[in-house]
Design the sequence.
């Protein structure tokens, strides 16, 4: 019996699902919230509308505009590289899951940069114990794309730890 070759399509489907959920939530925020609006949901979580012209934690947000194209280029290059990696390793489930999550998030944020010139963020978590690190204890607002990228990064780390353990 011939061994069935793993397919790239489920991983691209996962990336597409993350991308669609990301763009759907951003469309809702853009449609119902003005910049700076906030709705408290719990004592530690708000839905907000924030525009991030930089990268994670607003890195380079006030750099003068060139960062839009720089981060767009990085996102596109990373996406091409990730698709190439997915084509090369579709049978490595945790690795491919990680790459698909990062891919969906990267494309979601690239779309924002191309359409708006900024990334739309809407999830605002805040706790008093964060006050020494973040203004008012508010962790920087983020979105579904950022969650995909973060989950993917954690899964890549886990995949590498497991790979090293298996090789011993």
Sequence:
């Amino acid at each position: 019996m011939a061994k069935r070759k793993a397919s790239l399509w489920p991983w691209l489907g996962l990336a597409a699902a993350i991308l669609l959920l990301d763009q759907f939530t951003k469309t809702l925020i853009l449609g119902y919230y003005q910049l700076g609006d906030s709705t408290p949901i719990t004592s530690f979580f708000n839905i907000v509308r924030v525009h991030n012209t930089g990268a994670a934690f607003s890195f380079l947000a006030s750099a003068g505009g060139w960062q839009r194209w720089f981060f767009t280029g990085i996102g596109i290059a990373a996406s091409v590289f990730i698709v190439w990696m997915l084509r090369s390793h579709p049978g490595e489930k945790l690795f491919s899951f990680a790459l698909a999550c990062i891919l969906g998030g990267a494309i979601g944020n690239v779309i924002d940069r191309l359409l708006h010139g900024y990334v739309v963020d809407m999830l605002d978590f805040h706790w008093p114990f964060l006050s020494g690190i973040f203004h008012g204890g508010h962790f920087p607002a983020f979105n579904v794309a950022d969650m995909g990228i973060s989950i993917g990064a954690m899964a890549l780390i886990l995949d590498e730890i497991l790979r090293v353990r298996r090789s011993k």
Q: What stands out?
A: The chain has a mean pLDDT of 89. The first strand starts at residue 38 and ends at 42.
